[in-house]
Amino acid sequence: MKLGIENRKQVVWLAVLGGAALLTLGVEFWPSSNAAAPVTAPPASTATKLGTRRTASGKIVPAVEPRLDPTLDLKLLNQSEEIKYAGNGRNIFVVGSLAVIPKPRGNGTDAPQDAGIRQPPPIPPPPAITLKFFGFANRPGETKRVFLSQGEDVFIAAEGDIVDRRYRVLHISATAVDVEDVINNNRQSLPLTQG
């Protein structure tokens, strides 16, 4: 199989790139006898010397290097024993140094308390039924029906019907209609109006 000049160039470039990749991986992951160069610490600031640190109060104290040795270091223990507790004058470890809390002057309300039992506010009455009864729609042999209006709307209903998805007609008499508001559980008698 013959390769063209362009294909040969591509094969050569692929071989060169593959060799470079293998060389990079070999250098990166192959164990070597050369130790890595030690990492140098950043230069010390002008305010502190190497091996010292500044405390919260501003004092410069020797810095303690972390150790992997689990034995007890008596120098560190002595340093921690020398620290004195200096708070705001109140020592939680001494019985008499507790803060004085003043006694409350009242129960926290502005109004004086009544001696009697507080009653809940009265329940407001349900809203009035706004339907108006203004006539009958009777035919011989049929159930008794009435005309009811609410604003511009006119409804024709018999006993047991629900009007305007809210009011149930309970009883029809010659002079009035008993209606129940099913949402507010309110019953009301609507008199026959002229008009």
Gross morphology? flat
Work out the helicity level: 10-25%
For the largest beta-sheet, the strand count, sense and barrel status come to: 4 strands, antiparallel
Strand content: 15-25%
Helical region count? 2
Q: Can you list the strand order of the major beta sheet?
A: 6-7-8-9
**Strand count:** 9
Account of the 3D structure:
By secondary structure, this protein is α+β, with helices and mostly antiparallel strands. Helices cover 17% and strands 22% of the residues. The protein contains two helices and nine strands. It has helices at residues 5-29, 74-81; strands spanning 52-54, 60-62, 132-136, 145-150, 153-158, 162-163, 167-172, 176-181, 186-191. It has a four-stranded antiparallel beta sheet with strand order 6-7-8-9, with no helix packed on it. Residues 44-48 have low confidence and may be disordered.
Q: Key terms for this structure?
A:
single chain; 195 residues; alpha+beta; four-stranded antiparallel β-sheet; three-stranded antiparallel β-sheet; 17% helix; 22% strand
Entry summary:
It is built from 2 helices and 9 strands.
Please specify the SSE layout and strand pairing:
Layout: H1 5-29, E1 52-54, E2 60-62, H2 74-81, E3 132-136, E4 145-150, E5 153-158, E6 162-163, E7 167-172, E8 176-181, E9 186-191
Antiparallel strand pairs: 1-2, 3-4, 4-5, 6-7, 7-8, 8-9
